[in-house]
C-alpha cells in the first residue's frame, strides 16, 4: 500500500499553528484520574462501563445506552441489529463521514443518498420523499456539525411509509431540537466520544434507544458476538456478531468528561452564535444557518460559505489564505459520501454484492451529480474543526477579522 493513511484525533492537528485555539490538549474532567485509578485498584473488577452507560442515558433522558469502542462500531451494531435483508435500502445524509455508512454496507444494505436542503449541510423530508421505494427500510439522519435535521417532518414521512428512523448524532451531543436532545428524536441514535469530539475521551461511542427489545438485541449482536450459552456445552453463536465493547479505561475517561459537558456545550453554543453574527456581517460570506427550532447548538465544526461571484479567487484559494491564522481550516468537499466513497460506484458498476441483481432491485449510481445541491454547496463551503470550549469573545473577533481581511483582499 503506497497511499498515505488518514490521521485521526490529536495526530491530525498536532502540526497546526495559528492565532486561535484548538481542542488539544483537551480539558479533562477533574475526576478522570480518580476513575482511572479506580479501574486499576479494582484489578479490573470495577464496572465503569455500566456507570457511564447509566450516566449518559440519564443525561439524555433515555432508557438504554449501549457503550461501544467508537462511533463507527456504534452505527455498525445498529445496522447489524436490523431485521432487514441484503439489497434493502437505507436513505442517508450525503454530507457525512464514512463511519455513517460502513455498517450498512457491511450488512449488505444499499445506501441511498438524499440531497441536502438548499443552503444547509442536512437532508430534509422533501429531499427524502422522492427516494422512497418498496425496498426502503430506514432513514439515517446525520446532524452535521451539531446542527439538527428538521426531525418532525422526517418522522411523519417515515411513519407514513413504515420506516425505521435513526440518528447519527456523533457531532451533536446535547444539541437540542424543540426542547429535545439530539439522539432522542427517533428510534435510536449513535454517538461519538473520540478524542476530537465535543465529549472527547480517548476513543468511544454508544447507541441510545428507548426500545427494550432493540437494546437487548444490540447487546447480543454488538457485545456478545451473537453467542448464547448451552448447558453442558458452552457457547453457541446463533448469529454473526461483534465484540464491540467499550473498555473500562475509556468508560472512566468518558464518565469524567460527561461531568463537564454541559458547560463545554454552553460555551460552544455561545461562541458559535457569536461567530455566526460576526461572519454574517462580511459581504459575500454566510455562516451555516442555525435553525430557529434549535435551542442549543453543540457546535463541533464551524463553517461558512462564500459567494464566488463576489471574489476574484476560488473557494480553495480563499481557504488557503486563512490557513496560517486559523488551524484546521479548509474545504470540506471530501464529506460528500456519494463521491468520496469511490468503492460504492466501483461495486455498483461491476454489479458486485450487494449491487448484484438480486439482491439489488435495479442499477445504482454514485457520484457528485447524484446529490447536486450538496455537491454545489460544498464547492462554496469552508470549515474548521477546531472550534472548542477554549474559545472566547476575543477569539471570535479575531476569527471574523481574519476572514474579513481575506474577503476584502479578494473582493471582485
CATH superfamily of the domain at 32-260: Type I PLP-dependent aspartate aminotransferase-like (Major domain)
* C-alpha termini separation: 44 Å
Q: Please indicate the percent range of residues in DSSP E strands (runs of 2 or more).
A: 15-25%
Structural class: alpha/beta
- Tally of separate helices: 15
Can you give the mean pLDDT? 95
CATH architecture of the domain at 32-260: 3-Layer(aba) Sandwich
Radius of gyration from CA coordinates: 22 Å
Characterize the largest beta sheet: strand count, sense, and whether it forms a barrel: 7 strands, mixed
Low-pLDDT regions: none
Strand order of the largest sheet: 1-9-8-5-4-2-3
Q: Write down the CATH class of the domain at 32-260.
A: Alpha Beta
Shape: globular
At the third CATH level, what is the topology name of the domain at 32-260?
A: Aspartate Aminotransferase, domain 2
Number of strands: 16
Write up this protein.
By secondary structure, this protein is α/β, with parallel strands linked by helices. The protein has a domain at about 30-260: Type I PLP-dependent aspartate aminotransferase-like (Major domain) (Aspartate Aminotransferase, domain 2, 3-Layer(aba) Sandwich), CATH 3.40.640. The protein is about 35% helix and about 15% strand. A 7-stranded mixed beta sheet has the order 1-9-8-5-4-2-3, sandwiched between helices. The protein is globular, with a radius of gyration of 22 Å.
Amino acid at each position: 500500500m503506497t497511499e498515505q493513511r488518514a490521521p485521526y484525533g490529536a495526530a491530525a492537528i498536532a502540526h497546526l499553528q495559528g492565532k486561535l485555539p484548538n481542542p488539544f490538549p483537551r480539558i479533562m474532567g477533574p475526576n478522570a484520574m480518580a476513575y482511572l485509578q479506580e479501574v486499576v485498584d479494582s484489578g479490573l473488577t470495577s464496572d465503569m462501563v455500566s456507570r457511564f452507560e447509566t450516566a449518559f442515558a440519564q443525561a439524555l433522558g433515555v432508557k438504554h445506552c449501549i457503550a461501544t469502542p467508537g462511533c463507527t462500531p456504534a452505527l455498525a451494531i445498529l445496522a447489524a441489529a436490523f431485521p432487514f435483508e441484503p439489497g434493502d435500502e437505507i436513505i442517508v445524509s450525503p454530507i457525512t463521514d464514512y463511519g455513517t455508512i460502513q455498517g450498512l454496507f457491511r450488512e449488505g444494505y444499499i445506501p441511498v443518498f438524499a440531497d441536502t436542503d438548499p443552503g444547509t449541510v442536512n437532508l430534509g423530508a422533501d429531499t427524502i420523499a422522492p427516494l422512497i421505494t418498496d425496498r426502503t427500510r430506514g432513514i439515517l439522519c446525520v446532524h452535521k456539525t451539531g446542527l439538527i435535521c428538521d426531525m418532525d417532518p422526517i418522522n411523519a414521512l417515515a411513519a407514513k411509509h413504515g420506516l425505521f428512523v435513526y440518528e447519527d448524532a456523533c457531532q451533536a451531543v446535547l444539541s437540542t431540537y424543540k426542547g429535545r436532545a439530539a439522539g432522542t428524536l427517533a428510534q435510536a441514535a449513535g454517538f461519538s466520544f473520540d478524542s476530537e469530539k465535543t465529549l472527547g475521551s480517548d476513543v468511544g461511542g454508544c447507541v441510545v434507544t428507548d426500545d427494550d427489545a432493540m437494546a437487548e438485541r444490540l447487546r447480543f449482536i454488538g457485545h456478545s458476538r451473537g453467542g448464547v450459552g448451552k448447558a453442558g456445552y458452552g457457547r453457541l453463536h446463533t448469529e454473526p456478531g461483534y465484540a464491540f465493547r467499550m473498555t473500562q479505561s475509556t468508560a472512566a475517561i468518558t464518565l469524567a468528561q460527561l461531568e463537564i459537558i454541559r458547560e463545554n456545550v454552553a460555551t460552544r453554543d455561545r461562541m458559535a452564535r457569536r461567530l455566526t453574527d460576526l461572519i454574517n456581517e462580511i459581504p459575500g460570506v454566510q455562516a451555516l444557518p442555525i435553525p430557529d427550532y434549535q435551542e442549543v447548538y453543540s457546535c463541533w465544526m464551524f463553517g461558512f460559505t462564500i459567494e464566488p461571484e463576489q471574489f476574484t479567487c476560488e473557494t480553495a484559494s480563499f481557504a488557503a489564505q486563512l490557513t496560517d491564522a486559523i488551524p484546521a481550516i479548509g474545504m470540506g468537499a471530501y464529506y460528500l459520501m456519494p463521491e468520496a466513497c469511490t468503492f460504492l460506484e466501483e461495486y455498483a458498476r461491476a454489479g458486485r454484492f450487494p449491487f448484484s441483481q438480486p439482491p439489488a432491485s435495479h442499477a445504482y449510481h454514485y457520484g457528485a451529480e447524484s446529490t447536486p445541491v450538496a455537491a454545489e454547496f460544498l464547492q462554496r463551503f469552508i470549515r474548521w474543526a477546531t472550534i472548542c470550549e477554549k474559545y472566547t469573545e476575543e477569539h471570535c473577533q479575531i476569527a471574523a477579522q481574519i476572514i474579513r481581511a481575506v474577503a476584502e483582499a479578494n473582493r471582485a
